[in-house]
Design goal:
Layout: H1 2-25, E1 31-39, H2 44-47, E2 54-59, E3 64-70, E4 87-95, E5 98-103, E6 110-119, E7 123-127, E8 130-131, E9 143-150, H3 175-198, E10 213-216, E11 219-222, H4 229-232, H5 238-253, H6 266-282
Antiparallel strand pairs: 1-2, 1-9, 2-3, 3-4, 4-5, 5-6, 6-7, 6-8, 7-9, 10-11
Length: 284
């Protein structure tokens, strides 16, 4: 009996030490951050552009990130005067007080550098990421202020494996390859919503960009082809983009009626519709 108790105590001690070590080793950047404000007192050239700006950024312990911009101006394109909200995916590393973001979806192999400042672990400020193309800019770079949104590590959800569908194709694809990208995108969306349902958390559908779907409390709406520029950009050319949209549209239009037992639950409705769409595409 004494021996068994000693074993239990030893096991508990090992588990406790392992958990404590993980907490100590965890990078304070890991988790999700929500945009709060911008320090732009001396940068009037950018203040109006960020009047409707919204953003969420998530860093995983696996070294991947998902940076979602919404509103009139994107962070990464701020110095290019590009006006379009996007979802940027890639890998991240640290060098001293700087974070290096390697974007691998819209602009493959483009690297951005940003200075990072922490305040009590709940607030984060960093300068607008500057790409190698604009390292010599003479403009003052304002600080973006974020607050801690979620301490959870979403490494599995934003892994390279689950987000390959975000990476633009640089060669023509056949029907099966196009279907695979759509299926992977829908699988990500389903996993994303199921995670938030299980954890009883609010699901920010920004993360589903550029999938051309809009989530509402009573269902999912497929955007028109001409309103799906970011999604279309993932494909090699207009022909592939149009074929992809038609595949997604057929699968979406064949969704069965939402069961009565989940008709009052928005997240369950959306999961059902996405699963039905995925099933329809896989069966053809």
């Amino acid at each position: 009996m004494i021996k068994n108790n000693i074993i239990k105590i030893a096991l508990f001690a090992v588990i406790t030490m392992s958990f404590t070590a993980c907490l100590k080793e965890r990078n304070p950047l890991v988790g999700s951050w929500e945009y709060v404000s911008i320090n732009d007192e001396n940068t009037t050239w950018i203040s109006e552009d960020f009047s409707s700006f919204q953003s969420i950024v998530t860093f995983s312990s696996e070294g991947t990130f998902l940076f979602v911009d919404d509103g009139n101006k994107t962070v990464f394109d701020a110095l290019n005067y590009a006006y379009e909200g996007r979802a940027y995916f890639g890998t991240w590393t640290e060098e001293g007080t700087e974070i290096i973001l390697n974007v691998i979806n819209y602009i493959p192999h483009e690297t951005y550098t940003s200075e990072v400042t922490f305040n009590d672990g709940k607030n984060l400020s960093f300068k607008i990421p500057v790409s190698k193309l604009h390292e010599n800019t003479t403009k003052d770079i304002p600080l973006l202020n974020y607050k801690r949104s979620d301490y959870d590590d979403l490494g599995t959800l934003i892994s390279l494996e689950k987000n390959n569908w975000r990476v633009k194709s640089y060669q023509k694809e056949d029907k099966n390859q196009i279907k695979k990208r759509i299926e992977d995108a829908l699988s990500f969306a389903i996993a994303f919503l199921e995670y938030h349902e299980a954890e009883e958390k609010f699901a920010r559908t920004y993360y589903l960009k550029p999938l051309p779907l809009k989530m509402y409390g009573n269902g999912v709406v497929l955007k028109y082809y001409e309103d799906s520029e970011d999604w279309n950009e993932l494909f090699f050319d207009e022909e592939d983009a149009y074929n992809a949209y038609e595949i997604l549209k057929k699968g979406f239009n064949s969704v069965a009626k939402v069961p009565d037992e989940i008709s009052e639950n928005p997240i369950k409705i959306n999961i059902f519709i996405l699963k039905e769409t995925l099933k329809n595409i896989q069966s053809h």
